[in-house]
Amino acid sequence: MKCPGQDTQFWTESAIYEARCPQCGRAVEFFKDDTTRKCGHCGHRFINPRMDFGCAAYCPYAEQCLGDLPPELVAQKEDLLKDRVAVAVKRYLKTNFKRIGRAGRRARHAEQICSAEQGNLAPVLIAAYLWDLDNTNGTEADAPVARSILAELKAPEPLVEKVAAILQHDGGGGIDRRIVADAAVITDLEETLKESRPGQDKAVAPIAGALQTARGKTYARELLENANTGK
């Protein structure tokens, strides 16, 4: 059975309409199930401005239903998935509120570092939430728990492999791996500073020295300065 929104027997006259090309302003005809159309005048391809991608953003059958998904929708699917991963991690950790809190802080730090280092936000945030679920601090080659959660959420395989590369301790994952690793180090650094008295930065120097990104190192210096000034 087709999704009612895409089955032509449910269509009305409003299912065919025109939209202005954002490049040249000419009218381009759209059918309601067109994800994108190319402007016949300037050749610019743009996303259907009236299409409701709400269900397609999370539906595992969206690609079969709508055809090739535009990049904007792929990004939206990944963005929604990271929120579902966060919920799944909380469910997996149950009442271990300390680890739940660490996962949330690690993801927040990863987001800030990712913005500065121009990493891939969706896989970075997903990996940050999943980082220590296999109790290996991200060094497990297979990460079965992380993969199981992603499989349950029907994550697209290319995204799963990106996340797996970040979680593996084999030199892969590139800048995204370094971003999440730094976020994990900074989470540890925060906890160590909370237990230390102002001025005891020698105790945290080895932790800060493990950072691999420019933003991560700046982040650590800011934490140390705030701790030493009592902020």
Could you characterize the architecture of this molecule?
With 231 residues, the protein is mainly alpha-helical. It has two domains: 17-70, no CATH class; 72-229, Hypothetical protein af1432, CATH 1.10.3210. Helices cover 52% and strands 7% of the residues. The protein has nine helices and four strands. The chain has helices at residues 62-66, 71-93, 97-117, 121-130, 144-152, 157-167, 174-195, 205-208, 214-229, and strands at 16-20, 27-31, 36-38, 45-47. Helix 2 runs antiparallel to helix 3 (97-117), helix 3 crosses helix 7 and helix 7 (174-195) runs parallel beside helix 9. It is elongated. The N and C termini lie far apart (60 Å). The model is unreliable at 136-140 (pLDDT under 50).
Radius of gyration: 22 Å
User: Counting H and I runs of at least 4 residues, what is the number of helices?
Assistant: 9
Q: Roughly how many Å apart are the termini?
A: 60 Å
CATH H level of the largest domain: which superfamily? Hypothetical protein af1432
Class from helix and strand fractions = mainly alpha
- The succession of helices and strands, N to C, reads EEEEHHHHHHHHH
The shape is elongated
How would you state the average pLDDT, rounded? 79
Q: What is the number of strand segments?
A: 4
- Based on the coordinates given, report the CATH architecture of the largest domain: Orthogonal Bundle
Helix share of residues?
A: 40-55%
The amount of beta strand, in percent, is 5-15%
